[in-house]
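Notes on consecutive records. When two proteins share a document, each keeps its own sequence and its own token line. Never mix them. Below: protein one.
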Amino acid sequence: MRVSNVTVRKRLTIVLLIGLLIFAVIDVRLGYVQFYVGNKLTALAKDSWSRNIPFEPERGEILDRNGVQLATNMSAPSVLVVPRQVEDPAYTAEKLAAALNMKKEKAYEYVTKKTSIVRIHPEGRKISHEKAKEIRALSLKGVYIAEDSKRHYPFGSYLSHVLGFAGIDNQGLMGLELYYEDKLKGEEGSVKFYSDAKGRRMPDIADDYTPPKDGLNLKLTIDSRVQTIIERELDIAEATYNPDGIVAIAMNPKNGEILAMSSRPDFDPAEFQSVPPEIYNRNLPVWSTYEPGSTFKIITLAAALEEGKVDLSDDHFHDPGYVKVANARLKCWKRGGHGAQSFLEVVQNSCNPGFVELGDRLGKDLLFKYIKDFGFGQKTGIDLQGEGKGILFNLDRVGPVEQATTAFGQGVSVTPIQQVAAVAAAVNGGILYTPFIAKEWIDPVTGEIVSRTNPQPKGRVISEETSEEVRHALESVVAQGTGKGAFVEGYRVGGKTGTAQKAQGGRYLENNHIVSFIGFAPADDPQIVVYLAVDNPKGTVQFGGVVAAPIVGNIMEDSLRAMGVKPRNNQIEKETTWLDPKLVTVPDVIGLTKQELTQQLMNMKLDISGEGDVVIEQAPAAGTKVKEGTPLRIFLGETKNNKKKEATMKYEPVG
């Protein structure tokens, strides 16, 4: 049957339209793939071909407040294997095993693993540059050296519990390293290369490099000058007394900045694997809790003064050596008691019955209100792990005996950092601050400050007038009371001793005490608070005034000088005993001739240097009080128009 031309044309038109429609669909699809999802598909394809060699970022450095490096990084390459690129697994395994001192069978497992990339661990992690160079020289197919780093602590055990440490993967595991892990760790980078299904590199596609982003540098409130002094004194104390432990903290009372923190036993962060966890996991200054002893009396004193319950000069108290409370007989540390004394002498003598009286005048509600206001029974909020809260009596269960013992620091449990923060508030004008140790975060590339920690005042606990009275009372404790061991010539030091029995199984141990001292200086404008506690010192009388106070005195003297605080001669005169070294006042010899020196100072030890006939410099300076026998260093020179001193200078004893 013959088809008409009209029908043919219709059919051709339909076919043409269908063809155009198909081509349009294909064209739209190609355009969509090309312009809309092309990049995504290319990326997916590349991803299926790609292999990543990771590049770890540099972990942020930790610095002291003056820029001294406390935790840094050392370059330490690592060995990676791309198993599909290994042409001769047996040969490669043999060479790697020999270079990395590992079993050949283990190396063979690595180079034949069914995975894209594998790290040789631990033998190939953080190796030396010499070892990396040796492996590169082998030119093993599929074996790569990745740039890596490991944490370095240049001062060993210095500040170890505060800094903590990082693990093999540069992840923070303890201390500040863990607490600020997110900011210190940075972001990982990589080199991405492309290979076919058999693992062979695709030469036509360039490698992609994503640089790592280094972690932020952390500048601490720690002053390495003060920290070094404390570390030195703790080492000496450990060698002298062989204690069960030691704790020390130094803080700026005006803002809560921690200037130094240390404890014994300590450890080397680089060798933490060889140390029992109970040593490195316990940062004693913030973790340990124990009865504070007489250092806690500062809180009772501050509360009684603030509430107008006592006048230190006019009010008097008689101490027979004990006080009866309910059915308990609470003893004073001094057998026979202190007798009649003013309440200022009660503070100076650390008289337990006197503080029981102050607690009684306050009553349990007021006493415990101030204890809580000063931050006890709760965490201070310091930016360190594992902080303890301490233990206070439940107010409903506080009877007369519990109130009495709390007033002189027995029966409650506190942490060292709580005591430092509380005493800082008592002497800084009455403001309680949150202690902190992270001062600034710094961009490692630009050196710009990214963020800064501002002091966090929690509130006023006592008035400025009360704080001034507390400072005066505690300065007199050091000059004329139980804290004489902390007296520093030329600096107004205040403080309080503490001697607390250790409890075990509900009973107090015999001849096993934590002896402590908390001091501050200068007493008229405190720049530093130092707390030191020695746990069970051996071979000595276990009193805070005997063991701890002299150590704090040494820390105070050297720290104040390191901080640039100048000595002044307006301190309370020290009440001396026959045990104290005799002090003399250094005369002014500037301008005297060499002949006049020898005539007038025949009984002095002179250390003379310089050429000339006239004294132009001397050390120590005139007016300074020094131990008898201390040499006077003289520098001679020639000066014009120098008035000679009257020949009446004497090296006069003090006191």
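Protein two starts on the next line and is unrelated to protein one.
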Amino acid sequence: MTRPATTRRWALHAGLLVVWFLASFGVVFFARDLQWVVAGWQVGYWFAAQGSVLVFICIVVVFAWRVNRREPPEPDLEGAGYAIYTRELHRRFALYVIGLLAFLLALALAERWGLPKVWVAGIFLSATLVLYAAIGVLGRTGDAAEYYVAGRRIPAVYNGMATAADWMSAASFISMAGGLYLQGFSGTETQAGGLAYVLGWTGGFCLVALLVAPYLRRMGLYTVPDYFAARFGGRWPRIIAAVAAVLCSFTYVVAQIYGVGLITSRLTGVHFEIGILLGLGGVLVCSFLGGMRAVTWTQVAQYVVVILAFLIPVSWLAYKQVGSPLAPLVYGQQLEKITALEQRLKDSPAEREVTDEYAHRARALEKKLTDVEAALQAERQNLHTQLRAIGDYKSDDEGVVQLRRALASLPKDAAAAREQWTRELADYRQRAKPMAGMPSQSTAYAGQPDGTAEEKDAFHTSRLNFMALIFCLMVGTAGLPHLLTRYYTTPSVAEARSSVAWSLVFIALLYVSAPALAVLVKFEVMSNLVGLPFDQLPAWVAQWARDSSLLSVSDINGDRVLQFAEITIGADLVMLATPEIGGLPYVVSVLVAAGGLAAALSTADGLLLTIGNALAHDVYFDGDNSKAQAMRRVMWSKFALLVVALMAAYVAAQRPAGILYLVSASFSLAGAAFVPVMVLGIFWPGLTRSGAVGGMLAGLGVTLYYMGANLPVVRAALQLQGDGLWWGIQPVSAGVFGVAAGLVVALVLSLLTRSESPRP
């Protein structure tokens, strides 16, 4: 007897979701046990870094292939007109790639023949920004369908490419490899990270493909809040969804504009704030003029720049170290060497001298913090006494200058001193640990599962935080409005499924290479940088040390030789400095900077468009889709986009937090606000309007509370004791509690309000 189609469909869903769960949470739960080595790879590390991504790709490809085979083809996609349209797109794309490669080669030759570096940087930056602006101008439109969803005629492969560019933000391009360098497999007990980003940001696409994207595309919507209005009716579901979309997208876009400022200032030499404004101009030209149509084709162009900028340096570094450019396939042998180097550094007497000095500084700060007012007054008095002893306050002598700087850098009052010294104390305590507190590159989780009670607790807390972060990143992926809107642009539901598969394939090209880059750079630092005399350090160290937030080196133990614990590297440095570390031509450094800029710009485009559309289409016009209002809606969307862009630029200029933290926080917000209600609404007809409203408010409220209540400034202001954590889970993973709260409240309220007539 043949099973009904619906039964076969749900069996496919269930089977693929089980595989997804095992590949994401099942394997990593036992990662510490999977330590055996196969073909030079530690099984647990390889699976978390690469094997899981391959499984996720198989899941979305199998799902798209099986379901699309069952559905009849769309009539509009069978005609000769669509085939001619796609062939023309292929031709233009091929010409663009060839032209870009030729342009890079020409610049490399010009550099070799003596073209100054400033000209190389200026020409490449100008050319890429002009290209993006030209696409924005050519794609300008006032038509609502073109502005919001690019006319719903973007083929799956190009929508996948645009989605990949939209997805691979400044966090993916600039910060992820650095995070893997600093955090190793899983981060520390108090700061989960590492391979959680690879797992979370790829595994979430399985949820997008199986649970969300095809169903939203079938409804013919313009924005994500449109779904909540269409499914539940009334004004409040749309308004709450629009506010949540603005909140999570604004948090995300601040991180992207921060990245824009970082890259532009690095590429042009201008101040960080000026770099933000320059990059913002490129964002606005695309999203302001042409909406989704211009943004889509700009993102396709930006994807090529991003992927070339990432793969060329990592391939060169792999070839330099192991003789093969296929970095994701060969970096395992360097991982083994790093494990041996880590042990050697832990046993090094010189390294212990450095960590002992940090411990001494930590104890000194502990004494100061017992009486901050007296310690600050004594330190200020001591510096004045030394200056008086010298006798000439205005002397240019180096010692006098240093004393004046020390005096000027003292906190202004006791409150500022307490905040600064507490922050320094935490840093010194961390750096007083072996390897300056940096976790082992290949060891999963802190602590020991069979050690002391304290070590066991550290192990379980570390593993719990790692899995919580994966959960938030995956569920947040399925709820981010700027990502889901990308699948509204495909010609059909089948193309939307295929587009998710293409998206993950294009994204995986970078994501399986990021762990390789982290390992290769760490090996370069440990084997070729550590142990050098300070006067023999390579030129790239002095160049990047101009920004102490990216790199700083200091002779802590006074032996004039660089130790590993004397190097402080920011997460944003690792990718950006790879060309200099590998000794590549300057044009590759410019390409990497342009790639980081393209990654930040492409994501900022989509986010600002999402925010502008939510404010204008969903809040101001309440989803009015009438033709009479179409032009006004588009104009108001553009105005809202401009205002939000300027606000985000101002917030980014304050450098509120690191790129990775801001992006991760936005995933928690999106997952908690949207996913429980959205998925229940798609698959359960019994979900009511009251359940939807209560679920969204509960999810968003719990997530915001947990994040806010655990901010150090909030806890200090309210004089809250303890760390305020629930089960030790860090605030960046607050979405774990928000998703659970949203799901429970939505179910309970829907059961209590069953008299409401549910909408299909």
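For the record: The radius of gyration is 27 Å.
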